[in-house]
């Protein structure tokens, strides 16, 4: 065991997490976490990966009864081990500031690498994610089956249910998570460090997502636990962030249920160093807004309904965006089944995404509506029931931009479905595969499904489903009636 602990300490030295002279102190910190008074040398080889070293130490803790044997308890334990190697918050912030003085890119490159080296971003799990690209009518859509966010096993679920409820931290985005030990119903964050920012004159923080759905996936969050709100101030904050980090994009989830993200209780944005298909999509209809002739505007060729604004004068773009948002919040077009509200419940909002184009600022405004009907109780502009076997969850910011985050169950289900289709089995008698039966039978009618092309075909068909998911989420459909209705809204904005 001593060889394994020594190897973990060497890892910390090699990655710059600790310095020479810290070894004895860190060794004793690790003994404390392991609840050992001393340790003998087992002679085991200790040149393994970080994940293997942590697994070996955690396995030993489980055998000794120090750690429960479930995925949540193991994550809590190995995070505590990494916390012993993670520098103090002030050290991380000082290093980031020094590098930012060189260039924003140098600072973010270091901070992302640091967040991986501390195992806050678990690279071994992210490597297991299943990813491919679907060439759609709108450009290349990224498809992922996410495996890096572990699903809780029954033992972990039972333990979480029995765990005492606590109100600290208030949510998983709060700054108070930095260094928190976690519990069965809240992740450990001893290896987590956040960077303070000032945007729109108010204190914010930013960090990377531990699940990294795309390159350098970051989260920018309010220092206060305050609800999501899309308004003029949000546009200002988005532009402030891309002024600080011009090589990143940043966007906000919508601020209403169904069309919003999974956390509406804490004001936050998501960004990163990645160009999504939507960002690459061209303008298909040029627009002109009265009084804003210096702002290039247009409707984007995209399955969802997107107005793109580009210009050098950021304040003028913000002013126009605020006008469009205000008009959309109040807009009703019954012929297009767009209702601003029903019985006082608002339905219209926007998903905004900001990026730089050289010295210019660009803002995409994705029109959203969360109306529900008897036929579509989960949302009229939400994936319809026939697509739920692939994607049922909310269509948030990441999906809007062209990246499907699909449930982990699909890895197993698609593999089993492929074999069943090749063998000609009755899918409707299989409890796991019955939900895919209509879809699979339709594929078999259209395509020649063989062992040498089966996986490729299923991946293409999953991509096609995701394209339809986005089309369902678009408030204006991509037909003649939809285009006419979209332009009615533009004329409404210009009339105000």
Which helices and strands, and how do they pair?
Elements: H1 2-14, H2 23-34, H3 50-63, H4 71-83, H5 89-102, H6 104-117, H7 123-126, E1 130-136, E2 139-145, H8 154-162, E3 195-199, E4 202-208, E5 218-222, H9 232-244, E6 249-251, E7 268-272, H10 277-280, E8 283-287, E9 296-300, E10 306-311, H11 314-329, E11 341-342, E12 345-346, E13 348-357, E14 360-369, H12 397-400, E15 403-406, H13 409-423, H14 437-446, H15 454-473, H16 480-495
Parallel strand pairs: 2-15
Antiparallel strand pairs: 1-2, 3-4, 4-5, 5-7, 6-7, 6-13, 8-9, 9-10, 10-14, 11-12, 13-14
Q: Could you characterize the architecture of this molecule?
A:
This protein has 496 residues and is α+β, with helices and mostly antiparallel strands. Helix content is 39%, strand content 17%. It is built from 16 helices and 15 strands. The strands form three sheets. Strands 3-4-5-7-6-13-14-10-9-8 form a ten-stranded antiparallel β-sheet. The chain has a three-stranded mixed β-sheet with strand order 1-2-15. A hairpin with an 8-residue loop joins strand 8 (283-287) and strand 9 (296-300). Helix 1 packs antiparallel against helix 3, helix 5 (89-102) packs antiparallel against helix 6 (104-117) and helix 9 (232-244) runs antiparallel to helix 11. The protein is globular. The termini are far apart.
């Amino acid at each position: 065991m001593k060889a394994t602990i020594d190897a973990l300490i060497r890892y910390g030295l090699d990655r710059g997490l600790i310095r020479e002279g810290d070894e004895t102190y860190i060794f004793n910190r690790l003994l404390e976490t392991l609840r050992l008074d001393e340790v003998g040398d087992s002679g085991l080889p200790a040149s393994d990966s970080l994940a293997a070293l942590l697994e070996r130490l955690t396995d030993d803790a489980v055998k000794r009864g120090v750690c429960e044997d479930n995925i949540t308890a193991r994550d809590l334990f190995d995070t505590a081990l990494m916390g012993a190697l993670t520098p103090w918050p002030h050290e991380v912030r000082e290093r980031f500031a020094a590098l930012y003085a060189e260039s924003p890119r140098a600072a973010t490159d270091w901070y992302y690498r640091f967040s991986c080296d501390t195992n806050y971003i678990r690279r071994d799990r992210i490597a297991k994610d299943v990813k491919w690209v679907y060439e759609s009518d709108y450009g290349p859509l990224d498809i992922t089956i996410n495996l890096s966010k572990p699903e809780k096993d029954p033992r972990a679920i039972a333990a979480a249910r029995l765990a005492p409820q606590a109100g600290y931290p208030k949510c998983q985005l709060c700054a108070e998570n930095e260094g928190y030990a976690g519990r069965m119903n809240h992740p450990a964050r001893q290896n987590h460090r956040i960077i303070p920012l000032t945007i729109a004159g108010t204190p914010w923080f930013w960090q990377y997502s531990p699940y990294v759905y795309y390159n350098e996936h970051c989260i920018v969050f309010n220092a206060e636990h305050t609800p999501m709100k899309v308004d003029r101030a949000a546009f200002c904050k988005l532009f402030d962030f891309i002024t600080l980090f011009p090589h990143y994009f940043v966007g906000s989830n919508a601020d209403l249920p169904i069309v919003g993200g999974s956390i509406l209780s804490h004001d936050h944005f998501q960004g990163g160093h990645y160009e999504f298909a939507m960002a690459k999509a061209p303008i298909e209809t040029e627009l002109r807004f009265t009084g804003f002739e210096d702002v290039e505007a247009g409707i984007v060729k995209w399955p969802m309904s997107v107005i793109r604004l580009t210009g050098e004068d950021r304040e003028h773009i913000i002013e126009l965006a605020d006008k469009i948002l205000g008009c959309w919040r109040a807009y009703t077009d019954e012929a297009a089944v767009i209702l601003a509200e029903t019985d006082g419940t608002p339905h219209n909002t926007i998903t905004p995404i900001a990026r730089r184009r050289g010295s210019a600022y660009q803002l995409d405004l994705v029109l959203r509506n969360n109306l529900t009907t008897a036929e579509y109780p989960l949302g009229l502009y939400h994936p319809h029931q026939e697509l739920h076997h692939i994607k049922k969850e909310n269509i948030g910011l990441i999906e809007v931009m062209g990246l499907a985050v699909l449930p982990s169950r699909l890895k197993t289900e698609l593999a089993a479905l492929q074999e069943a289709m090749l063998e000609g089995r009755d899918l409707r008698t299989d409890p796991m595969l019955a939900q895919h039966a209509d879809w699979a039978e339709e594929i078999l009618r259209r395509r020649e499904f063989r062992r040498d092309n089966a996986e490729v075909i299923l991946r293409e068909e999953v991509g096609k489903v995701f394209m339809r998911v986005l089309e369902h989420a678009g408030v204006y459909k991509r037909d003649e009636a939809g285009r006419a209705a979209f332009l009615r809204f533009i004329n409404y904005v210009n009339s105000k």
